[in-house]
Design brief:
By secondary structure, the protein is mostly helical. The protein has 19 helices and 3 strands. α3 runs antiparallel to α4 and α17 runs antiparallel to α18.
Length: about 425
């Protein structure tokens, strides 16, 4: 928080006339929340104002606007605690003299709350500041489900996403390809995608900004951005079509792991070969490239590519043969999810590899209790479809029964 002393941007409570320092979100005397932008009285500047002195400009002269905000003197704002960010905190942003120092502070923020507190107080005057703030938020909040939930439901996060959308709307090229991909990646890690109103709108803005510039994305930027949209569950048809066209033309220049992430993203969003000529070219070119370089794929990537082609209904025999050979040679490194995903893909695609399926069934029979709810259902589904692995199927069904309370209705129906 900021020191109480003579801040030029302290605010006066309209209920009790108490003067509150800029960091407070509610009056410390009567506990009334700070009014929304345009409806709060700021304490006049003093000689101890912020660096650079008072410019005499109001908040709207500094370019701040909140989506849905009304002009000064307009009708009363809608009720609710999540109506934008306090004017006092927006005013504080103009005290920042060095954007590079702000980047360093964002990079050092230890928690999601620290990132949002820094943004609320100091803002993000440059594109790099904004991208770094969101990237840090995804890094420190994305690995903890409870932290991610708290962050994406914080009113400061909603205001941050509205500011992101506003800047992109004003200038679609505001974020560079890497910054755009990093922001999308951070939002996906936080779970701010489909079902999260501000997050989903932010993804839509990012997609509209990125699609015309797909040619400017390098392989990693393209794969990471596509992964983010798929993980967030946000469909962006024009962007995925542009990405598919870009990658299909340069498939041999791509790292095979980046190709794995890209085809998985397209399959996850339902953008298989039938969705567009660009996607059809990419899936065909990626299959040949992945088959030639199967030895470079990890167990998770092998499972991901198998799943992708099975999910879109494309049975590419050369690719499946190469990936199954890679899986047999590296089965000891396969975790439960990779085992279940690979088994499901082979069953779904109808690809016969009896040796690999027997090995996968053996892992299921021996370690069914280690499988998560979704993975054990996939494994049971695959074993039932293939047949001939009764012991493994019984173990999978028993493990699924023990997890019945954790299974969603569609998963339960698959077991019937």
């Amino acid at each position: 928080m900021y020191k109480r002393q003579d801040s030029a941007f302290d605010w006066k409570c309209g209920a009790c006339a108490n003067t509150n320092y800029s960091g407070r979100l509610a009056c410390n005397k009567c506990l009334k929340p700070v009014p929304p932008p345009g409806y709060v009285e700021l304490v006049p500047p003093t000689a101890r104002g912020f660096p650079g002195g008072d410019t005499g400009h109001g908040l709207h002269d500094h370019g701040y606007h909140d989506e849905g905000a009304r002009p000064f003197g307009g009708p009363p704002p809608p009720p609710g605690p999540a109506y934008g960010l306090p004017v006092a905190q927006h005013a504080l942003r103009h005290a920042v003299a060095d954007p590079h120092e702000l980047d360093r502070r964002y990079a050092a923020a230890p928690t999601w709350n620290d990132v949002l507190e820094l943004w609320a107080g100091r803002g993000a005057p440059t594109a790099a500041n904004l991208a770094n703030a969101l990237s840090r938020l995804g890094k420190v909040g994305g690995d903890d489900r409870s932290a991610a939930h708290a962050a994406r439901h914080d009113r400061r996060f909603a205001a941050l996403l509205r500011e992101l959308r506003s800047r992109i709307c004003d200038d679609p090229e505001y974020l560079g390809p890497r910054q755009l991909g990093n922001v999308a990646h951070a939002l996906a890690r936080l779970g701010a995608g489909k079902g999260h109103m501000d997050g989903e709108r932010a993804f839509q803005s990012l997609g509209r900004a990125a699609a015309p510039r797909a040619a400017a994305f390098d392989a990693r930027e393209l794969a990471n951005t596509a992964w983010a949209f798929a993980t967030a569950g946000v469909d962006a048809p024009e962007l995925m079509r542009a990405f598919a066209a870009r990658a299909a033309d340069k498939v041999r220049d791509y790292d095979v792991r980046e190709l794995a992430n890209l085809v998985w993203a397209l399959a996850k969003l339902g953008k298989g070969p039938a969705s567009s000529p660009e996607a059809a070219r990419l899936f065909e070119a990626a299959a040949a490239s992945a088959a030639d370089r199967a030895a470079q794929l990890s167990s998770q990537q092998v499972a991901k590519v198998l799943w992708s082609y099975a999910a879109v209904g494309l049975r590419h025999e050369v690719l499946f043969h190469a990936l199954c050979g890679r899986a047999r040679a590296d089965l000891a490194s396969y975790g439960p999810l990779s085992v279940a995903t690979s088994a499901w893909a082979l069953a779904k695609a109808g690809h016969r590899d009896d040796a690999l399926m027997a090995a996968l069934a053996g892992v299921v029979a021996a370690k069914a209790s280690d499988f998560g709810p979704g993975a054990i259902v996939d494994a049971a589904d695959a074993l039932d479809a293939v047949g001939g692995h009764a012991a493994a199927l019984d173990a999978a069904l028993a493990a699924a029964a023990r997890r019945a309370s954790s299974l969603a209705t569609p998963a339960l129906l698959r077991l019937l």
